[in-house]
Specification:
It comes from Streptomyces synnematoformans. Keywords: DNA-binding, Phosphoprotein, Transcription, Transcription regulation. The chain is an alpha/beta fold. The chain has eleven helices and five strands.
Length: 214
């Protein structure tokens, strides 16, 4: 069972997400929190596999909560929830370690799919939305991205192809079909890319890829 923590200051939104989680036999609710501080406390006290985190909350907001959650000894995968009135908060959440983000008007089935995807260790990268966010809120001055950009120079041509495909939101299976590689080989390439770039997940790797072409 994938244990899901719902974090939002709006009780109505929490109720909707709680009811949605209950529709999937592979998911169970690990808890609810109305702010980032309560979310971190919950994740410390019980097992949480995936946290759905609102970006704008009083007290500890979604960015700070994402960073704190990702620093836990056994961190959950974090999906940030936001409206499409995008701002620098989205970039900050991705840079803090979020495995993806969803708009609050995302169809329920897509939210459930995202939970399963990030629980499996992948990122939820919507190609259109991710490209928009990364291009609109691109911050080349960010220290982590600057360092990763330099590290990208050490990637092999094949690894750069894989990185480009990751930035386009492709899964390992799709990358394998595109580049005629076994999925296990793609997975090995992705692992080395993340290690070489010094980033935590595929979303941060995508940020680096956009920096290279930006």
């Amino acid at each position: 069972m994938i244990r899901v923590l719902v974090v939002d200051d709006d009780a109505f939104v929490r109720a909707g997400l709680r009811d949605l989680v209950a529709t999937d036999d592979g998911l169970e609710l690990a808890g609810e929190a109305a702010d980032g501080g309560a979310a971190v406390a919950t994740a410390r006290s019980r097992r949480v596999d995936v946290a759905l985190v609102d970006i704008r909350m009083p007290g500890m907001d979604g960015i700070a909560a994402t960073s704190a959650l990702c620093r836990l000894p056994d961190p959950p995968a974090v999906i940030v929830l936001t409206t499409f009135d995008l701002d620098e908060y989205v970039y900050g959440a991705l840079a803090a370690g979020a495995a993806g983000f969803l708009l609050k008007d995302t169809p329920p089935d897509a939210i459930l799919q995202a939970i399963h995807v990030v629980a499996a260790g992948a990122a939820m990268l919507s190609p259109t939305v991710t490209r928009t966010v990364i291009s609109r809120f691109h911050h080349p001055e960010a220290t982590r991205i600057q360092a990763a950009r330099k590290a990208a120079d050490r990637l092999t041509p094949r690894e750069r192809q894989v990185l480009s495909a990751v930035a386009d939101g492709m899964t390992n299976a799709e990358i394998g079909a595109l580049l005629r590689l076994r999925e296990s080989t793609v997975k090995a390439h992705v692992s080395r890319i993340l290690a070489e770039l010094g980033v935590a997940n595929r979303v941060q790797a995508a940020l680096v890829a956009r920096d290279l072409v930006g």
